[in-house]
Amino acid sequence: MGRCALMEFIAFVEAERYLLQLADNTEFDFYGLAQLDRHTRRLRWIWSYGSTSGRTMHIYHRASGGLTGAALRARRLIVLDAANTKTEHLRSEEPIMLSEALHTAAAAWIGTRYDEEGVLLVGRRNATPFSEEELRSIQSCAVKLSGAIQTIICQA
Fold first, then answer.
1. What is the pLDDT along the chain (156 residues), one digit of tens a residue?
2. In contact, 34 and 10? CB cutoff 8 Å
3. Mapped to the 3 state alphabet, what secondary structure does 43-71 carry?
4. Any bridge partners for residue 45, and if so which?
5. 67 vs 84, 138, 144, 149, CA distance in Å?
6. Which of 6, 32, 87, 115 is 20 to 30 Å from the Cα of 79, by its Cα?
7. Among candidate residues 94, 113, 116, the one with its CA nearest the CA of residue 105
């Protein structure tokens, strides 16, 4: 295994550890991590937990659409639930929400100074809104993921 491949593997293992910690500390039905392909401007799902659809990991979609696209553009956490009616239009533009039958979801931007970007998406298959504590946990995980990616890039 070459140095770059090893670094990518280490980054993935560390990212998975943060994602599983989030899953242990929260009660969402779906957890997913997508990476932005800068050349095609498409999101590619690289990790999921709680998926009920065999299509999820094969979905590639425009980085400009849906809840995940809104998080990428805004570079912050975007929430879609009954308390956030301004984001309701994003539901039909988000392929993962449709394939996983999610009613509420939150997408957090993951990024580094080196233009590596991705999105953390969590959701529920019922209409239960997010608590402030849950939103802090999602944001904290996104920051940890950004830091892990940044560290690996700097070491490469």
1. 555 565 566 667 788 888 999 999 999 999 998 888 888 889 988 888 999 988 888 888 888 889 999 999 999 999 998 777 777 778 788 889 989 999 999 999 998 766 778 899 999 999 999 999 999 999 999 999 887 766 554 444
2. no
3. EEEEEEECCCCCCHHHCEEECCCHHHHHH
4. 34
5. 12, 15, 21, 22
6. 115
7. 94
Q: Dihedral sign for Cα 128, 130, 133, 138, please.
A: positive
Q: Strand order of the sheet with strand 78-80? A: 60-62, 42-49, 30-37, 117-124, 104-111, 78-80
Q: Which of 105, 102, 112, 104 is nearest to 142 (CA)?
A: 112
Q: How many Å apart are CA 38 and CA 120, to the nearest integer?
A: 17
- Residue with the two structure tokens 């039905």: 29
Rounded distance, CA 53 to CA 78, Å?
A: 23
Amino acid at 106: A
pTM: 0.87
For residue 41 the two structure tokens come to 């401007």
